[in-house]
Each structure stands twice: as C-alpha cells, then as structure tokens.
Design a protein that fits this description.
heterodimer, A: TIM Barrel, 7-stranded mixed beta sheet, 3-stranded antiparallel beta sheet, 16 helices, B: alpha+beta, Rossmann fold, Elongation Factor Tu (Ef-tu), domain 3, 5 domains, 6-stranded mixed beta sheet, 34 strands, 24% helix
C-alpha cells in the first residue's frame, strides 16, 4: 500500500515497524525477506540498512537468504541501489510495466521507457545479479505487436526473472472510470489470451522456465519468497496492511497508516485487524489451488504426507472433469494445469472449493 | 312494482367514449347514490379495471326514477364489458335487456367497437338510443358525428341525444327517452320460472352470486332451484337487487334484474348463459343455448423462481374461481421448470390475467410468447388440438394444419390507409372490403374515416400487431375482430437448439418463408445472452432436422487471476467463491451453463 504525501512520517513509521518486529520475532529461521508494499524505494538506504540489522538481530537469517526489494524506475538512482546492495539486498524487482511510452502514460506511471532501460543498467552496475522485471499485458489499445516489442526488448536485457500481469480494472482508478464511461475500450479476452500465449512462446525460446502462471525465471532463479505462498507455507508480514500466514491463521495488519503507527507504539501489543482461522480442510483446498499455480503442479504424495488425504480420491470428480475439458493433466501422482488450463485456471480453482 | 314500470337497459360504446361516466351520472341523477358516494366510478370497482379504463365484470344497478308523468319507474342498468376479447360476455348481458344506450364520443365519432356493439344489440332486437357524449369538450364536433351516425347506422338526427356525461348537460332527457322508447319487459310472473344467468361472481362468504334476469315466474329466498344446462340443484341463500350494493329482498319477479346467492364453490358450477328454473313445475326449455367461451390464445405461465410454483398454482386457482373462461393445465419446460399452459379469450384477457397474478398475488412471472390453438390432422387421419408448440408432431407425420382466422375491421382516418394496409398484408391478411364512413369530407387534414375489412390468421395478431396499428395510425385507428373459423395453414415448427439440445420454450410456429429471418434473430440473441463455455457451443435454429440458421459461441480462453501473493490469497479465494455461487444459479441446457435472465430476453422475440 502506498500513501501520498506522508514522507515526513517515514521515521515514525519505521519505528513502529521495528517495534512490531521485536514483538513478533522469536528467533525463527528465515530463508527469504521481501521489502514490498508500497514504495520501498522512498525509504532512504540508511533506513533500509538499519532495518536489515534489526532483522538480523531478531531472527536467524540464512546465509544464502534471498532478500528482495521492490523499486520503481524513475524513483531510484545508482547511489541508492549500491547502498541497499551493500546492506544485504540481493534481488531487485523493478516495476517496469511496459517499454512503450504510450502504455506507460496510460498506466499513469511516472517513468518513460528510456528511464526504465536506464534503471536496469544502473541495477546491473550496482551489482545486482538477480533482477526481476514486471510487465503488463491486456492494456487498452495494446496490439499484439506492441506487446511483442516490449517483451523482446525485455528479454534482451536478460533479467533473471520476469513477472507478467494482465491488467485488472479497478473501478476507482482513473482507467477503470474511463472504461466504464466508455472513453476507453477494454482489451477483449481473446486478444489478451493471444498475448499471454505469445509470451509463453517467446520466453521459452529465450531460455526462461515458466514456473508459475505469471512468473518466468532462468534456471534456479525462481523467486524463493513467492514460492512460499504457492506452496502454502508459513510467512510473516510486518508493516501497514501486511499479511501473515502462521499456525493455521491468516492475519492482516490494519491498512490505516495512522492506526498502524499508534497500535505498534502502544504498550499493549495490538492484535491484527484480520484474523481468519484456516481449518484443515480449507488449508488442503488452498494448498491444492495455490500449488496448481506452479507448473510443477501438486504432488499427491506430498499432500498426503502433509494432510493424510489422497487428493486423487478427494478431488477425483473434479480432476476427471477438468482433464476431459483439457485443463488439467495427470502424470503419475502429479496433477498440473495444461497450457490451456493456465489461462483458464479460475475454472479449475472454483471447482476445488469446498461445498 | 308493476312490470309495466320496469325498463331493462345497458350502455354500449367504444372504449373511453364515456360509458362509465354516463352510468355514474344516471346513478346520481336518480338519487340512487349521492354525488360524494359515487367515488371515482361506481361501476368499475376493480382497481385494474379503473386503471385500464375498461370494464371486466358486468354489474347491474337498480335505479328509481320519477318521470314527468309522475310515475316512479324502475330502471335496471346492466353494465357490459367493452372489449372484443369479452364479446361473449357482452352478448349475454344484452339478452338481459330490452334497450341499449349507444354512446359515441363527439370528437372521435364512430369507432370499431361502436359498430361491433351496435350490430350485436341489433341482433338481440334491442331498442337503441344513440347519444353523442363529451359535447362539453372544446374540440368536439357533434354535427359531424351526427351525420356519421345517420349515414353509417341509419338513425335520424331527431332520435339522437346530445349530452355530456361529465357535466350532466343533456342527461335528464335521456331518462325520459328510456321510459318512452325502451319497451317494458314481457314475461309473466305466473308462468314457470325461467331466469337467465347473465353473469356470476364468486364471493368468499356466500359462494357464487348469480346475476339473473328473470324472464318468467318468480324467485324467492330459500327456494331450491335447478340449473337447466348443468342439471345442478342450488339453494337460494339470498335474493336481491343492486342498489348498487347488493340489497337483499323477498323476491325477484318477471322482468326483474337482480342476483341470487347460491352457495356454490366456483363459477364453473354456475355457468353464465344457463337458465334457472324451479325443481317442480319448472320450465321445459332453457332460454338460450350457452357454451363455455373458448380460449383462443395460449401461453405458458411460469414462476420466475422455481420455488414459487405452489404460490402460482394457488393464485391461478383463485383467479379462475371468478373467471370461467380462463383455462389452465400444468406443464413443464426443460428450462423454465414447472408452470401452466393457460388459455385466454384474447390478448387483453392474457394481459389482465398476468397483471392480476403479478399484482394481487405478488408473483414474478415468465410468460412465453402467446400462440393460437391448432387443429392438426395426422397422416392416418387422427386429429389433435395443439395448444403448445411442443405437442406438434414431426413434419413427416402432419397431413394438415388448421388455425383460427378472424375477420378484422380497422377504422382509421384515410391518411393512414397505406401504412395500415401494409401491416395487414405483412400479417398475412387478405383484403375484403373498404367502407367510407360518411358521405362528406370530415376529419380535416387526416382525411375521411374509413373502415378496412380484412381476414387474417389470429396467429398474426398476437405479438406486435396491436401496437403497430396504433403506431402506424398515430393512435387514431381502432380495431375489432371476430372469429370466423378455421383455415388450413402451411406452417412449420421452428426449434432452437443449444449445443445440439432443443430448448422447448423457444419453439415457434411460423410460416416456412419466415424461418430463416426469425431463426437468425433468435440465434443472434442467444449468442449475446449465453456466456462462453469451456468448449465451443453451436446455437442453431432448425425445422425438423433442417438447420436454417446457426451461430457459434467460441470457447472461453481466459479466466485467470494473474497476481496471487501473500496478501491476495484470502481475497482471491473469496472471488472464486463468488464465481462458484454464480454457477449454482445457472440453468444447465445440454452442458451449457446459462444465467436465467439470458433466456427471458430471447422469449420476447416475436
């Protein structure tokens, strides 16, 4: 979450963050850290370094832990990148979104394609050898060849990781309003599907491994942090609007910046604003749905080990139906989405929900 | 009351020419009710009737009038329904009267039902008193209308009264004319009882109330009487007249109009047109032959929500207690579920029943496109009556199809003749006759008024026909029709198939030449209405096994949540749950999931 015009609150916010960390830490083993939100790049490098050392004090962070920071081109400079690299951030996720100026303007981004290229160059110079780029497709007016150009250029930059997202229109955004008023034409479903399939082909040819519905990586450079989500394992989220999944509960902090800063500074440890208990059945369902997002799919033996349920029996009817429809395939004890199934994954997922 | 001092009359008119207002004025003038008691219009008590400006149920009022000769006369005013759908009811009421006041609007002049009702009254040998109403209105042209009445109906100007029912101007002389010109009822109170049931109404407390015109004999309370046509015996729980409220009295005698409370359970048991007589020493012959009015227009009536079927059944049963011409039978449809096939006298009757069901019983309904009943002769000679396209046999098994035809007269200013004749031709009408109303130029720039006579299949009147008549004549034309019998028809059943499964509710009976056009429109509408599935879905319109139109709905390609990270999981799961809920509400036709609203639109295509 980002908050406009609250830069002066940054120090106060960071204090609150540190307090929350202190309250919730128990020396656990940490294998990945992700600075997201939000616009982490607005926080100065000194603050970042400070936070990093607090984290190292409170937790047992792996030597080879993956530590990611998100950044938007146009808000960063070489100096900053070098500094955070030094403080231990070893992976950078750049919100490029597009290498087409018209599209960037449409998206309301403050950077241009040239600035995006410059940011990539600077990231490399600052020593980042694990770089991820975000791109968007399904944009109003985006032709297949526009998309192809952005993609091909992105591939030539050889990022280790790529995340490709279809545009989702939110009514409250300027673009959402423009579409509902009819000033802007939404891109139709079939054109967006074509764009996704083109990306699959181009990225495969470019040597990338399509490991999750929206994510590609060069060998071994999958985002370890996100894999935690898709494998439905535990994670701790700290900060305003942060989410956690611990001990069978999904938790979320308040989305109000002011409330967050008060809560975390109070003596009595304020609880999360949202606390959803996840029953074992729901945990199974979520594990299956999240796991299917990964190209490797779900392994019924692993699931049996974790839940003592054989999903090939539990979901037998759905698996048969979706296999017949060409959306799922089964190899041995593994079930995964087919190429067509990835694009239509919601059709598979809602069928896996409990009655 | 001496029989010679009784006069039985009705008021006949085209819709909105002022029948009800005139009735109110007569009620007021005779002191039967005070002006403030009259309310909006006494005789149209059903809310729906008032809104639509039509009378659905006939009623009778006894008026007492002190004439110029000093005597007190009993005037029985019998109200008549004013629409062609209910012409059978009009006919029965006329039998109860000796006279009719014919009301013609001073601006509109003679219209279609003016003529139809006048001819009916003449057939029943009623003494007709023509009056021109609404002379108070600024645009009225009484002289022109008078000339029209003279030339078209043959009445002399001095026999026509000019009045305004609204202001009361010219109405008192009408009462005198009624006394003078309408004969008293003949009939002898000493002869065996013969009373005609000209209407009936179900009352929750008293059972069926039969409206009677006593021709001969007398009716007293606590008698036991016989319905001749049905051979039913009834008890006279109460005898009375209408003042206009039901007023119990000792007896009704020859020449009287009133009611009896029978205690019967439904109007079906007390058929209108039947004759009431005594059990002992009763009459040997009924007064007139009667027949249950035949439904001509059929439609499927379904509840929008399947769970409301029970409510719908109760509602239709209740409505039919008072509507002997509404027929209904349970039926079911693969997509609409359980409902009823209902038979109506005409489109107006259908509209009224539908509105009453929706309004009085708070039901949300789906009504299929109305159709006529067909008589189909199969190869092999067997005949069937088909009221539902579903019942149509295969084309190869049909030897002959016959459908009801009507004679239709459209009265219009001449400037719209072209547009109307075009409509009539398109509706498969065959031209019969044109008649000019009035010898001289009238009506100003719209031209002289003309009556167009055509014959056409009733089937073609059922969808947009009425609206088109009004649209093409800017509202000036009026229309009347009468059934003339069955004609052979070259028709076919057009089926609609979704994913190769025929959907019964969409079937239509049409002319083979229109098949392609109608089929194309329907498949196009369905393509818009049905969401994409996981596989390609063909939508076809076909006659038997021959496809006349086809469109494909391509398979869905994309339905994906691109981002799904820690903070998104609960929210995304809820989105999926909503998607699942949505699917539950869909109907399944041949593996195709369709939201219910989707086919409601398609059902509306003519």
């Amino acid at each position: 979450m980002s908050y406009d015009h609250r830069e002066t609150d940054i120090p106060r916010y960071l204090s609150a963050l540190k307090r929350e960390l202190a309250r919730r830490a128990d020396g656990e083993n940490v294998r990945s850290i992700y600075f997201g939100g939000g616009t982490p790049s607005l926080v100065s490098a000194e603050y970042m370094a400070d936070l990093m050392s607090v984290i190292r004090e409170l937790f047992a962070v792996d030597e080879a832990a993956e530590i990611t920071a998100e950044a938007n081109p146009g808000t960063i400079e070489g100096e900053y990148l070098r500094a955070i690299r030094e403080s231990g951030v070893n992976r950078l996720s750049l919100g490029v979104q597009s290498l087409n100026d018209r599209e960037l303007a449409l998206l309301g981004r403050i950077h241009t394609a040239a600035e995006a290229r410059e940011a990539v160059r600077q990231a490399r110079e600052a020593g980042f050898d694990n770089l991820s780029i975000d791109l968007m497709y399904g944009l109003p007016g985006q032709s297949l060849s526009d998309w192809q150009h952005s993609l091909e250029e992105a591939i030539t930059m050889r990022p280790e990781h790529l995340s490709l997202y279809a545009l989702t229109l939110e009514e409250e955004t300027p673009m959402g309003k423009a579409v509902s008023e009819g000033c802007l034409n939404e891109l139709n479903q079939d054109a967006a599907a074509d764009q996704y399939e083109l990306a699959e082909d181009l990225l495969a040819a470019g040597g990338y491994d399509h490991y999750e519905i929206s994510n590609w990586a060069m060998g071994g450079r999958e985002c370890r942090h996100n894999l935690t989500y898709w494998r439905n394992l535990a994670y701790l989220g700290v900060g305003v609007a942060a989410h956690s999944c611990l001990n069978g509960h999904r938790l979320a902090n308040t989305a109000s910046l002011d409330k967050y800063m008060v809560d975390s500074s109070g003596e009595s440890a304020a609880g999360p604003e949202l606390d959803e208990e996840i029953s074992p059945e729901l945990e199974l369902v979520e594990t299956a749905i999240l796991g299917l997002r990964l190209s490797e799919g779900i392994d019924s033996d692993e699931i049996h080990h974790r839940f003592v349920i054989d999903i090939l029996v539990y979901y037998q009817q759905q698996i048969e139906e979706m296999t017949r429809a060409g959306l799922l395939e089964q190899t041995g004890r593994r079930v995964k989405l087919t190429r067509r199934g990835r694009l239509l994954s919601n059709e598979v997922f809602w069928r896996f929900l409990p009655e | 009351m001496e029989q010679g001092l009784t006069r039985n009359f009705c008021i006949i008119a085209h819709i909105d020419h002022g029948k009800s207002t005139l009735a109110d004025r007569l009620i007021e003038l005779t002191g039967t009710l005070k002006p403030e008691e009259i309310g909006k219009q006494v005789m149209d008590s059903m809310e729906l009737e008032r809104e639509r400006g039509i009378t659905i149920k006939a009623k009778a009022v006894r008026l007492h009038y002190k004439a110029n000769d000093g005597q007190i006369y009993r005037l029985n005013l019998v109200d008549t329904p004013g629409h062609v759908d209910f012409s059978y009811e009009v006919s029965r009421t006329l039998v109860a009267c000796e006279g009719a006041v014919l009301v013609v609007d001073a601006t509109q002049g003679i219209q279609a039902q003016t003529l139809a009702n006048t001819y009916l009254a003449m057939e029943h040998n009623l003494e007709i008193i023509p009056v021109i109403n609404k002379i108070d209105l600024p645009g009225s042209e009484p002289e022109r209308v008078l000339a029209e009445i003279e030339s078209v109906l043959g009445y002399k100007a001095q026999d026509v009264l000019l009045l305004s029912a609204k202001t009361g101007d010219g109405v008192p002389p009408l009462l005198e004319e009624l006394i003078r010109r309408v004969p008293p009822p003949e009939g002898d109170a000493r002869r065996p009882l013969q009373a005609l049931i000209f209407d009936s109404r179900y009352d929750a407390y008293k059972g069926v109330i039969a409206y009677l015109r006593v021709v001969d004999g007398r009716v007293t309370k606590e008698e036991r009487l016989r319905l001749m046509g049905q051979s039913t015996e009834i008890d006279v729980l109460e005898v009375g007249y209408f003042a206009p409220e039901p007023s119990p009295t000792g007896e009704l005698t020859a020449g009287d109009v009133g009611y009896i409370a029978t205690g019967l359970k439904s109007v079906e048991e007390c058929r209108v047109g039947d004759t009431v007589t005594s059990i002992q020493g009763g009459a040997s012959e009924p007064l007139i032959g009667y027949h249950s009015p035949k439904p001509m227009v059929f439609a499927g009536v379904y509840p929008t929500q399947a769970e409301d079927f029970g409510e719908l059944r109760k509602a239709i049963e209740k409505l039919s207690l008072n509507d002997a011409s509404l027929s209904y039978e349970p039926e079911s449809s693969s997509i609409l579920g359980h409902g009823f096939r209902c038979g109506f006298l005409g489109l107006l009757h259908l509209d009224i029943v539908r509105e009453r069901l929706e309004r009085e019983f708070s039901l949300s309904l789906v009504v299929t496109v109305p159709g006529v009943g067909f008589v189909i002769t199969r190869t092999g000679g067997k005949q069937l009556n088909v009221t539902n396209p579903d019942e149509f046999p295969e084309p190869t098994e049909i030897e002959k199809i016959e459908e009801p035809w009507v004679k239709i007269s459209v009265i219009t200013p001449s400037s719209f003749i072209g547009a109307l004749m075009e409509l009539l031709m398109q509706s498969e009408g065959s031209y019969k006759h044109t008649e000019y109303m009035g010898q001289h130029q009238s009506g100003g720039k719209l031209g002289q008024r003309v009556s167009l006579e055509y014959e056409m299949p009733l089937r073609c009147m059922l969808t947009t026909f009425y609206d088109q008549i009004k649209i093409r004549s800017r509202g000036y034309a009026s229309l009347d029709y009468e059934l003339i019998g069955l004609h052979e028809a070259k028709l076919v059943k057009l089926d609609v198939l979704v994913n190769e499964v025929p959907v019964d509710a969409f079937s239509r009976i049409i002319m083979p030449e229109k098949a392609h056009e109608v089929g194309k429109a329907m498949v196009a509408k369905l393509k818009e209405a049905i969401p994409r599935q996981l596989f390609k879905v063909p939508i076809q319109a076909a006659i038997g096994s021959r496809v006349v139109a086809r469109v494909d709905i391509s398979a869905k390609r994309k339905d994906v949540l691109a981002k799904c990270y820690g903070g998104d999981i609960t929210r995304k799961r809820k989105l999926l749950e909503k998607q699942k809920e949505g699917k539950k509400k869909m109907k399944s036709i041949g593996r195709v999931e369709v939201p219910k609203e989707a086919f409601l639109d398609v059902l509306k295509i003519g």
